[in-house]
């Protein structure tokens, strides 16, 4: 394994992260907050470690899939370890384990929090906490790909390891150009949401931080009641953009280049829209008496968009909803958003492929001699793709089951333990009961927090970039 190139990439990540900390530092200057000094110290540490690794040129530039997976896994761990320091250095989250939980939740766009009083944090810390969503949503390595001088094949290994979904393809022949296109779309949608928030009278600081959480489908709020206190207009804008950021960014590329018919033929997009509409209708009827039917539709649409895209914002305390509505929310927690979006979960494309494989198997049991070719978006689903989907699902269920058992050692009720793991593994944020939309994860033991930190990283990085770090074969020469 080419360790020098891996360290070189990690150096880039730490250096870019240190540069990103200029924004919360500026925020501290604007609001005259002394806690901003923590970012200066952390930037110094990041550059002290990162710049030598960037300056040192690897002797060999050989780079394969293994190096790509390890680079992503180690890169995200290093990024989280550095990103937690401002909270601890400033004393606003004095316990480093809690600070690490909070920042991993931010970078992985999970939105689970250990904070009992969110509004007690300084503006600069709230800004950094939300900005990590925006960084982690598209992926810091996708950003690095746009500036790191590497050849296309090498870039593809990194992008496949960090991008959510069963497959990742180049939008254009040059991988660097693909990364720039993705970030341009991401930035454009972010700016549009900020503008619509400002039109609705939202303060600039709130508009920035809430948009970062929406764009990254993260959900770390800046108020203790999440988004309950914002106006229906601002909640509606958030609903629309949560839904939009849950769509595969390839769809926006096709629309941008006037290939609208091709975009609308996407099976994943059609399935995603169908699932969202069905869930909204079912919950709306179940909540019929919730302050009127239109109010029920409004809050159902908000929470369905929030949960299926794994954003995690709340417009209402859905812990008080009927069991049927809460069951639907838990169900769509596992489905997640589209592949190639900023959302988490299993991904709609995988669910569609697994459903088609099930139908094929049932057909085969009835008609033994039948030959049915599985297709997705008009293309044949290759055996390798289906195998990887099945392996991913098996690993996912194994990790989920083991995590629930381990977290249950804290002796909370089953619903709290189950949904806490579901919320962290699927990068959603809130669960039910103890970890509901107005609750938090502060009272879990350190052991359970480490289990859930592992789940957050595994969920965001699609399992294998983290698991491969624990394989002895990875480190053999």
UniProtKB/TrEMBL annotation:
Segments passing through the bilayer: 12-31, 37-56, 68-89, 131-150, 181-205, 233-257, 269-287, 328-346, 389-409, 450-470
Keyword set includes Mitochondrion: no
GO CC terms, sorted: plasma membrane
Broad class of where this protein is predominantly found: membrane
UniProt GO molecular function: metal ion binding; potassium:chloride symporter activity
Cellular location(s): Cell inner membrane
Keywords: Cell inner membrane, Cell membrane, Ion transport, Membrane, Metal-binding, Potassium, Potassium transport, Transmembrane, Transmembrane helix, Transport
Record: residues binding K(+): 109-110, 218, 310-311, 427
Membrane topology, record value: Multi-pass membrane protein
Membership in a protein family: Belongs to the TrkH potassium transport family.
Designated name of the protein: TrkH family potassium uptake protein
Originating species: Variimorphobacter saccharofermentans
């Amino acid at each position: 394994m080419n360790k020098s190139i891996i360290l070189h990439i990690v150096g880039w990540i730490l250096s870019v992260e240190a540069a990103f900390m200029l924004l919360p530092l500026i925020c501290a200057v604007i609001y005259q907050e002394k806690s901003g000094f923590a970012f200066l110290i952390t930037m110094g540490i990041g550059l002290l470690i990162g710049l030598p690794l960037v300056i040192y040129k690897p002797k060999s530039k050989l780079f394969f899939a293994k190096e790509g997976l390890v680079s992503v896994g180690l890169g995200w761990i290093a990024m989280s370890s550095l990103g937690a320091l401002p909270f601890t250095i400033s004393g606003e989250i004095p316990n480093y384990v809690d600070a690490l939980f909070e920042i991993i939740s931010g970078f992985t766009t999970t939105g689970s929090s250990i904070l009992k009083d969110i509004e007690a944090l300084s503006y600069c810390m709230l800004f950094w906490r939300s900005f990590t969503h925006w960084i982690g949503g598209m992926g810091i390595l996708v950003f690095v790909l746009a500036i790191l001088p590497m050849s296309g094949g090498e870039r593809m290994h990194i992008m496949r390891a960090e991008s959510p979904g069963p497959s990742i393809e180049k939008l254009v022949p040059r991988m660097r150009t693909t990364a720039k296109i993705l970030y341009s779309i991401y930035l454009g949608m972010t700016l549009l949401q900020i503008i619509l928030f400002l039109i609705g009278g939202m303060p600039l600081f709130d508009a920035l931080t809430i948009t970062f959480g929406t764009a990254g489908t993260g959900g770390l709020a800046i108020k203790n009641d999440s988004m309950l206190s914002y106006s229906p207009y601002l909640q509606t804008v958030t609903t629309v953009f949560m839904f939009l950021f849950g769509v595969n960014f390839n769809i926006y590329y096709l629309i941008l280049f006037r290939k609208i018919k091709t975009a609308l033929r996407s099976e994943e997009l059609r399935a995603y829209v169908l699932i969202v509409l069905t869930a909204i209708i079912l919950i709306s009827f179940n909540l019929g008496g919730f302050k009127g039917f239109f109010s029920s539709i409004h809050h159902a649409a908000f929470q369905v968009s929030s949960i299926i895209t794994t954003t995690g914002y709340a417009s209402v305390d859905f812990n008080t909803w009927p069991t049927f509505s809460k069951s639907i929310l838990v169900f769509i927690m596992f489905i997640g958003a589209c592949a190639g979006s900023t959302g988490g979960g299993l991904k709609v494309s995988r669910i569609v492929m697994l459903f088609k494989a099930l139908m094929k198997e049932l057909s085969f049991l009835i008609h033994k001699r039948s030959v049915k070719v599985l297709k997705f978006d008009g293309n044949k689903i290759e055996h390798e793709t289906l195998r990887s989907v099945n392996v991913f699902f098996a690993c996912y269920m194994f990790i989920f089951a083991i995590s629930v058992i381990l977290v249950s050692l804290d002796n909370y009720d089953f619903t709290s333990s189950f949904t806490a793991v579901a919320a962290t593994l699927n990068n959603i944020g809130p669960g039910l009961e103890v970890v509901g939309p107005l609750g938090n994860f502060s009272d879990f033991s350190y052991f359970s927090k480490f289990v859930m930190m592992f789940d957050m990283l595994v969920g965001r990085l699609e399992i294998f970039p983290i698991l491969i770090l624990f394989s002895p074969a990875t480190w053999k020469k």
